[in-house]
Specification:
The protein is α/β, with parallel strands linked by helices and 324 residues long. The chain has one domain: Rossmann fold (3-Layer(aba) Sandwich), CATH 3.40.50.720. The chain has ten helices and eight strands. Helix 1 crosses helix 9, helix 3 runs parallel beside helix 4 and helix 5 crosses helix 10.
Length: 324
């Protein structure tokens, strides 16, 4: 089955210069201290948006805030968030609720890649638990604040969603039967994409004024390639990054488009469009056909609820009270 374009942006080469004035808007970015997240924070903050960096390391978050201060016109705040620990996620969400009245862009950017076989503090396989389940719970706890602002949830996926198993392996979600660092990563990024599509469909069905949009950064040079992979994978990435990777500020463009671009549409998927979608002009990008399976998307949602012990229901209450 071939890959598919699922939306129509109307712009073939989107740039951050197309951003409107974002004064009064609030954007929460997981992993905003480096790479794609940092560059997205810089672009949004430069247009007047308030950015909140949700990061595992407060020291690194403070360093990022110091770098951003003076280069942005919007306010920069931080909150400690460890997506591999549900207690930390709940604590961070509670802290964030005391900081903001609404969220215009909840940007689920943080992630880990191709790690050895490890588990989160709650016993989930580390990559699936952090990249997908952590963001699933984080979004669940904050979705009403996104709705108050008639905002957007942005899921940062990857071209890696096209590889590995062509569906979610519900018989071995935690990769206990056979572990592959690659397969676990591919599955987690497929889950990110499917979550975005299912979330947007459920928001729309409930009459919510919030939307969900997915994106990917292409092949961009970030800390992912140096902090996750071990052994031969780590050795391979060093020359590959030097030869093939685009800088992180280019990789951040799809995220910024999805979070604040006036052209962005609900349920879309944005990213680079050249060299197998690894780099190039940013616009609508291709989705693997298997990622569009609505039955699998719905089951992934239900299994995620079970694993996290939550019941995520959307109601029609106060749906029309958000601000534009």
């Amino acid at each position: 089955m071939s890959d598919k374009i699922i939306s129509s942006l109307g712009v073939k080469d989107w740039k951050e210069t197309r951003l409107p004035d974002l004064t009064g808007k609030t954007y929460v970015i997981t992993g905003g201290n480096s790479g794609i997240g940092f560059e997205a924070a810089r672009m949004l903050g430069a247009k007047g948006g308030r950015v909140i960096l949700a990061c595992r390391s407060l020291d690194k978050a403070e360093q990022a805030r110091a770098q951003l201060t003076g280069n942005v016109t919007g306010r920069v705040d931080i909150v400690r968030l460890d997506l591999s620990d549900t207690a930390s996620i709940r604590e961070a969400a509670s802290e964030l609720r005391d900081m903001v009245d609404g969220i215009d862009g909840l940007i689920n950017n943080a992630g880990i890649m191709q790690t050895p076989q490890l588990t989160t503090k709650d016993g989930f396989e580390l990559q699936f638990g952090t990249n997908h389940l952590g963001h699933f719970l984080w979004t669940h706890l904050l979705i009403d604040l996104v709705e108050k602002a008639a905002g957007r949830v942005v899921a940062v996926s990857s071209i890696a969603h096209k590889y590995g198993k062509k569906t979610i392996d519900f018989d071995d979600l935690m990769h206990e039967k056979a572990y592959s660092a690659n397969t676990a990563y591919f599955q987690s990024k497929l889950a990110n994409l499917m979550f975005a599509f299912e979330l947007d469909r459920r928001l729309k069905a409930a009459g919510s004024n919030a939307i969900a949009i997915a994106c990917h950064p292409g092949y961009s040079a970030t800390n992912l390639q140096s902090t996750g992979p071990k052994g031969i994978l780590k050795l391979i990435y060093k020359p590959m990054n030097a030869l093939l990777a685009q800088p992180s500020h280019k990789g951040a463009l799809p995220t910024v488009l999805a979070a604040a671009g006036t052209e962005a549409k609900r349920g879309a998927y944005y990213g680079p469009t050249s060299w197998g979608d690894a780099n190039g002009p940013v616009s609508d990008t291709k989705v693997a056909q298997h990622a569009l399976d609505e039955l699998v998307q719905a089951r992934l949602w239900e299994e995620s609820e079970k694993l996290l012990g939550i019941n995520w229901e959307f109601t029609a209450k106060d749906r029309n009270e958000g601000v534009a």
